Amino acid sequence: MTIAPDVPAGIRPTTDAALAAPKGKPKNLGQIIRWLLLFAGGILMIMPIVYMISTSLKWPHEVYNVNLIPEEPTIENYTYVLEDGRFYWWFVNSLIIAVITTICNLLFDSLVGYTLCKFRFPGRQLVFIAILSTLMIPTEMLVIPWYLMSQSFGWLDTYWGIMFPGLMTAFGTFLMKQFFESVPDDFIEAARIDGLNELEIWWKVAMPLVKPALAALAIFVFLGNWTAFLWPLIVTNSVDMYTIPVGLSGFGDEVDVAWELIMTGAAISTIPTLIVFLIFQRFIIRGVVMAGLKG
Amino acid sequence: MANLALRNLTKAFGNTEVLHGINLEVADGEFIVFVGPSGCGKSTTLRMIAGLEEVTSGEVIIGDKAVNNLEPKERDIAMVFQNYAIYPHMSVKKNIAFGLRSSKLSKEEKEARILEVAGILDMVPLLDRKPNALSGGQRQRVAIGRAMVRDPAVFLFDEPLSNLDAQLRTQMRLEIKKLHQRVGNTIVFVTHDQVEAMTMADRIVIMKDGHIQQIGTPAEVYHQPANAFVAQFIGAPSMNMLPGTLNGKGLKLGAGSSLKTKWKSDSALDVMVGVRPDDLTVGKGDPIVSGKVTVREPLGPETLIYVDTPSGEVIAKASGRTPPELGEKVVLSADPANLHVFDAKTGMAVQ
Ligand SMILES: Nc1ncnc2c1ncn2[C@@H]1O[C@H](COP(=O)(O)OP(=O)(O)OP(=O)(O)O)[C@@H](O)[C@H]1O
Ligand SMILES: [Mg+2]
């Protein structure tokens, strides 16, 4: 990960220390161990990605061969996947769902987070705790009520059905509330005196001040929805409604899983996440650090 | 015509009343400074005038109308905050323009008004900058500019200078005062710095524990403090307080010396006798107390001496060139006319 040049000075020390370390000789055993651990961690994280790309360049007969470099590299898989109409639709579905869900989260989470943070009203604490407590329920438990709900409303196999559980998240609300705590009340009061109504204050004054948090939230939500598997698998029936992860898992025929095609699709599907990450990364570095400071 | 009036204003947070009946009439164009120790309710009063805090009871009147139930934006006020509160994501120009959002001026008139204000504040070359490219003093000027564009009936300042370093503070103090002379709007200014209060105010309101202690011009509160609190709060170093008694003959100081003064009391009355360090000298005048010099603080033109006396530690001003030696026994004297006498029980000035 490269560090954008305008990373605020405050977070430099940690990253600098990490980056500067390899320059000299290891000073002591502790440092050597730390490097080894980092190295091992790095390998662990990068290997699946390397294998994904490697496999996507192999012919089917070579897939179960663990060599990293394909004997006869081919881009045949890519042309196949891209020319296969299904993948195109899954990609579009995933994109529509991830983008809409992300936008909705940015709006709703911050609106609720802002309200919980900056307004005093009876029951405020209760609402907050209620929202937080939903974080403790695993998705696996929620899919059943979601499914029953979708079924009775006729949302099965629709975009809305795939999206509705994630349009607002407790995590996002919590994150935004914490970030709005760092917006001094003076800004809000100054805006009130300047004649803005409460909605305008939220939109024109408070939101621009928490851009790092919004960027971080955008990445979290986008990635989460882009890679979501369980719920889309359950709620969709027709191949046309599949998202990429659901669609890819079914690549191949009844007998054989076509790993080389799945890996090709997966490799292609990382491109939008890379783009999203590149756009927002300078914010997310700041955002995560700030979230860390807020505790 | 009163431009701003507070009538029996009280404020309670939950069950705790923090302001207990504030009464104040402010004339059009007056520069009023609220001063008092931390937590005395200055900000709360200001915020009630602004409409940021609800009034528990009493009335806030701006112009000629009670504004208790009006939104801040409808009150014809503008406020400058301690930490500036200028929006970091907007240029200086946009920040200033923000103050004009609810105005009915045409676009050209607004533009002209912004330039005019920027001109007054010497900010024209900075209009396109973002706040993070400005110094503390410049940021505060932007905040003042945003308040000024509206030409409000009342300007409210809540400790606007306390984040600035000492030198800048002195400079901004002067600038705000000049600005006031130029634009002439009513100003209510909160500070806990009595020097700021003395130098800027037409009238000072001294508060303590949610009560107004005294309202008066800087000269009045300095020379005729209404009570011992005001006497000690205003002026630096603070006024010396010596125990004494007042009887039919005159004033008797704890240390023994008897003084002929204008004060008399038929029955003996325990009092505190206040005397400012400036009015206490080594030499001329009636002797008040005596003792050994324990500390000297040379200030240049004069030297502050701390004298250990039977009535406690007393601060006096001595010559800057030939101050008394440490450990030297000195007799401190004062002109009886410069003494202040306060009832020891109530703290109120004895007339
Ligand atoms: N929102 C609030 N809830 C409860 N009590 C409050 C609130 N705001 C202020 N107070 C109390 O009201 C009193 C007056 O506070 P205020 O902020 O007006 O003091 P101040 O004179 O401005 O002090 P400072 O010089 O420290 O700014 C204090 O005792 C404070 O604790
Ligand atoms: Mg205050």
UniProtKB/TrEMBL annotation, chain A:
Positions of transmembrane segments: 32-53, 87-114, 126-147, 159-176, 213-234, 257-280
Topological relation to the membrane, as annotated: Multi-pass membrane protein
Compartments it resides in: Cell inner membrane; Cell membrane
GO biological process, any: transmembrane transport
Broad class of the protein's primary localization: membrane
Domain ABC transmembrane type-1: 91-280
Summary of subunit composition and partner proteins: The complex is composed of two ATP-binding proteins (UgpC), two transmembrane proteins (UgpA and UgpE) and a solute-binding protein (UgpB).
Family: Belongs to the binding-protein-dependent transport system permease family.
Name under which the protein is recorded: sn-glycerol-3-phosphate transport system permease protein UgpE
Gene this protein is translated from: ugpE
Automatic annotation (TrEMBL), chain B:
GO cellular component, one term: ATP-binding cassette (ABC) transporter complex, substrate-binding subunit-containing
One function term, GO molecular function aspect: ABC-type transporter activity
This protein's record includes keyword Transferase: no
Pfam families xrefs: ABC_tran, TOBE_2
Domain ABC transporter: 4-234
Matches recorded under SUPFAM superfamilies: MOP-like, P-loop containing nucleoside triphosphate hydrolases
Family: Belongs to the ABC transporter superfamily.
UniProt-recorded name of the protein: ABC transporter ATPase
Topology within the bilayer: Peripheral membrane protein
Cross-referenced PROSITE patterns: ABC_TRANSPORTER_1 (PS00211), ABC_TRANSPORTER_2 (PS50893)
Database matches in Gene3D superfamilies: 2.40.50.100, Nucleic acid-binding proteins (2.40.50.140), P-loop containing nucleotide triphosphate hydrolases (3.40.50.300)
Keywords annotated in UniProt: ATP-binding, Nucleotide-binding, Transport
Keyword ATP-binding appears in the UniProt entry: yes
GO biological process: carbohydrate transport
Cellular compartments annotated: Cell inner membrane
Chief place of localization: membrane
Species annotation: Ahrensia marina
Highest taxon, organism lineage: Bacteria
